[in-house]
Amino acid sequence: MSNDSRTQSLVFGLPWPELNDGIFYNDVVPHSDSGLTLVEFYSRKYKHSAPLQGWLQRIQNGQISVDGRVVKDPNAILSGDSVLVYHRLPWKEPDVPHLLEVLYEDDDLIALNKPSGLQVLPGGLFQQRTVLTQLCWSVKKQNPPLKSQESHPVPVHRLGRGTSGILLCAKTKVAKTRLAAYFADGTSLVGANRKAELGGTRKISKIYRALVTGLLGEDKVVIDQPIGTVRYPGVAKGLYVASPSGKPALSKVEVLERDGKQNCTLVQVEIESGRPHQIRIHLSFIGHPLLGDPLYIAGGQPRCFDSEIVDESYAQDGGYHKPTNPVPGDCGYYLHAHRLVLSHPTTNEMIYITAPLPSVLRTSYEANSLPESMSVNSAK
């Protein structure tokens, strides 16, 4: 095992513009919807986006075109195969970090140290201020326009917006396919044998640091609670929670240090499956939610479960206001993707990547030692 010469201490990122460019949503009217009015089409198909009055406002603002022509009449009759375009107006996205640290890079992949607060892919309020945008901008800055249009690095897995640490991105189609298969294989193996031993012959292994509420009694805990979804306001596809009827998930938790004065425990978590919010759900399921988690409480359920109440008021662009209940993207908890071991997608050599620990997630010994530096090793 030796230090990898391909490792570079590099930080990149461009400041965010004040406003994003808005978003253009395209639809083709199916023949079954021929004869509907413009407002009927949008308020029925996208009722989760805005109430009826909100869609009326968007149409009257001139934000919707039909076959290339702006239409402000909400009662305009639609024909089958007509092309509709809705332009969501530009807005100022919430303030988030913009700098990214490169932990490892070669011709096939790049590993980044994602800061807490930065979203990985576009979604919700964050359409421009994402890791993906910074990757695109970085390629355009380094390469001629034609070359930068060919491809750019893309994340092959997600980290929650409030989670920091290692984010793996593919630079080629082959690497993307193989790395995605690594993650999928780990999850499917858990599904095939929920009690399987961790480690084994997996192609990729992820280890996290987390700070949880309360003092864990056991030094090591294996959690195999299934994870499913429930209806929840502000989360269109449903909220992930601990559910007996959910999909298999497996986490291995190891206590690193207990703090009796602060009533919290520093833990290391190795995950074998990749269910959304798995660590947050599993640790809360055993009665030790992440310290500062605004969403999940003991039992792996949401803090607020008022799923029947919908706020019918709408914002300037006609859409619903941000939900008052906590949602998965809210930050405040302490979770860090600390170490990653993988078989290189083209060379098959073992790559070891470490993201420096935030001070709050260091043990007393680590805090009193020299600051941990980034390290990447490889062994053939």
TrEMBL record:
<dbReference type="InterPro" id="IPR006145">
    <property type="entry name" value="PsdUridine_synth_RsuA/RluA"/>
</dbReference>
<comment type="function">
    <text>Responsible for synthesis of pseudouridine from uracil.</text>
</comment>
<dbReference type="InterPro" id="IPR020103">
    <property type="entry name" value="PsdUridine_synth_cat_dom_sf"/>
</dbReference>
<dbReference type="Pfam" id="PF00849">
    <property type="entry name" value="PseudoU_synth_2"/>
</dbReference>
<keyword id="KW-0413">Isomerase</keyword>
<dbReference type="InterPro" id="IPR006224">
    <property type="entry name" value="PsdUridine_synth_RluA-like_CS"/>
</dbReference>
<keyword id="KW-0694">RNA-binding</keyword>
<feature type="domain" description="Pseudouridine synthase RsuA/RluA-like">
    <location>
        <begin position="108"/>
        <end position="284"/>
    </location>
</feature>
<dbReference type="InterPro" id="IPR050188">
    <property type="entry name" value="RluA_PseudoU_synthase"/>
</dbReference>
<dbReference type="InterPro" id="IPR006225">
    <property type="entry name" value="PsdUridine_synth_RluC/D"/>
</dbReference>
<protein>
    <recommendedName>
        <fullName>Pseudouridine synthase</fullName>
        <ecNumber>5.4.99.-</ecNumber>
    </recommendedName>
</protein>
<comment type="similarity">
    <text>Belongs to the pseudouridine synthase RluA family.</text>
</comment>
